[in-house]
């Protein structure tokens, strides 16, 4: 129930949202009050969600979290803002409380203030493009494996990249995409239908085969290990890193230790800083690195964090990346 004078501005917003009917069709007014139709409740889903422990819960257009973050310290605030950034669709909105702000947050670059005095922000399409610092060819000839990290917007980017790999592509490809921990992953099924390379969900102690795509399973870190026969996959239930399990840093750092200079590391679209330190670990071990140009990423925060962490070899839009992948595969110049 609302006071009639309170909803005086609602019809205009209703029209601007694209509604085809009158807002007055949805409520009954009497004695200075308006009661909305009870049938509207059928379109509302109420559920518990923990900002402290849960992962991305849905892709949404609007998030309202007013006067909640002020009761938390810096770490849970950063976690919650990261969840908001990953959960919002392209150009989605988030509203914070009067005493809350995105200023000084690591996620500030992911949003544009729309109504600053009301703490209303819109998720940005992209960010500034960093200048590449390229090497002309992969180090030490061929690359034996490529590790890829992505988050929000990552499925779209991977759909552009992975199907472009030819059937004779030699390196193994290991992918971490931030996933809800409580739901099964459909990524192997989705990409099996699109890719010429074999696609698998990674298993513990599974030998890494050349020319094969591996996706990290939900709620497990994916690592690279080695035994007497060669590199193999390992799964871990250790604590989340950057509030994520699987985490990109975990894969990149372990793969760099095993493959050294024969590793390629790639960071794609995403909404937090996971992977930035791992990509530098790849480079320190002599591997070659690539980051999606932030202004081409649906969520630029992850590429921006990777570029801020240190130098990388290639900063490219998605459409230029397949040529680099193929060059890494055959050891040719780029």
TrEMBL record:
Pfam families named in the record? CheB_methylest, CheR
Do you know which SUPFAM superfamilies this protein is assigned to? Answer: Methylesterase CheB, C-terminal domain, S-adenosyl-L-methionine-dependent methyltransferases
List, alphabetically, the PROSITE patterns matched: CHEB (PS50122), CHER (PS50123)
What cellular component GO annotations does this protein have? cytoplasm
Tell whether Ion transport is among the UniProt keywords: no
Query: Which CDD domains does this chain map to?
Result: CheB (cd16433)
EC code: 3.1.1.61
Catalytic activity reads: [protein]-L-glutamate 5-O-methyl ester + H2O = L-glutamyl-[protein] + methanol + H(+)
Enumerate the Gene Ontology biological process terms: chemotaxis
State the InterPro entries in the record. Answer: CheB_C, CheR_C, CheR_MeTrfase, SAM-dependent_MTases_sf, Sig_transdc_resp-reg_Me-estase
Residues in a coiled coil are none
> Which residues are in the CheR-type methyltransferase domain?
1-112
The UniProt keywords, alphabetically, are:
Chemotaxis, Hydrolase
Tell me the active site: 151, 178, 274
Name the record gives this protein? protein-glutamate methylesterase
Q: Which organism is it from?
A: Corallococcus coralloides
